[in-house]
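worker-3 :: picked Ectoine/hydroxyectoine ABC transporter, ATP-binding protein
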Amino acid sequence: MPPTENTPANSSTPGAGTPAIEFKDVEKSFGPTTVLKDLNFTVAPGERVTLIGPSGSGKTTILRLVMTLEELTGGYIFVDGQPLTHEDRGGKRVELPKKRTREMTTRIGMVFQQFNLFPNMTVLENIIEAPVHVLGKSKADATKEAEELLERVGLADKADAHPTRLSGGQQQRVAIARALAMNPEILLLDEVTSALDPELVGDVLGVLRDIAETTDITMLLVTHEMQFARDVSHRVMMFDGGQVLEEGPPDQIFNNPQHERTRKFLSSVL
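worker-3 :: C-alpha cells ->
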C-alpha cells in the first residue's frame, strides 16, 4: 500500500541497540562563530531522520562532520558504536589515525546539493570508480552492480553518456547511484533537490522514496521538501542556532509543533 500523506514510506520504527550514529557533546566553530554547541543525539540503525530548520542553523555541518569533510571542534561522533575521529583516553580527547577514520567512512555515503560528478568520465565510470579503487572490487563486479543501480534510478540507457549531456535531475540520480554503489550502511542527503529545476525534483524524490521503502539503510537528511520529509521520515528534528529545538514523529512536528520557532518556520515553508 502506498504511503499516505502523513505516514512514512516504511512506518515500522527501527529497534533499539547500538546507534548507527551518535553525537556526544559535539561542538563546531568556524573561527569565532560557534555553529554547533553541546549537540547530543542518536540515529538508530535503519532509522530515517530528517533535519529541518532555517539556513545557517547547522544542518549541513552535521552531515559534513559525519562524512569527516569538516573537523570537530569538540566532542565525539560514533558510528556503530565506534569513535569516528576522536576518542576519550583517560579523560583526554585524542585524535584517531586518519587511516582508521577513512576506513570508517567507507560505510557512509553522501549525496550533495551539487552533483560532483567527474565530467571527463562516463556515467558508468563515475559509479564504478570508488568501488574498484576504494573497496577493491573487480571491474566486472562493479560494472554489473552499477548497471543494476542505473536500472534502479531509471537511467539504464545513460551508462555511456557523460554528465554534461544529462539534465540536472539525471545527474543527481547518477550521484545517488554512485553513493549506493559503495553499499553504505548510512546515507547522508544534503538538500539533494535544491539545485534542480522544479519539474526535475519529482524524479529524484521518487528514487529516494524507493530506497526508503526497499532498503534498511540508515538515512540522515537535510531538506526543505517538507512533504518528502513527512513521507519518508521516522523522526524529524527542528534545528535553530545549532541546537535541537524539538524532535518527534512527522505527524507531531508538522501537525502539532510545540515550539513557537518551529511553528513560525513551518508556516513560512509550507
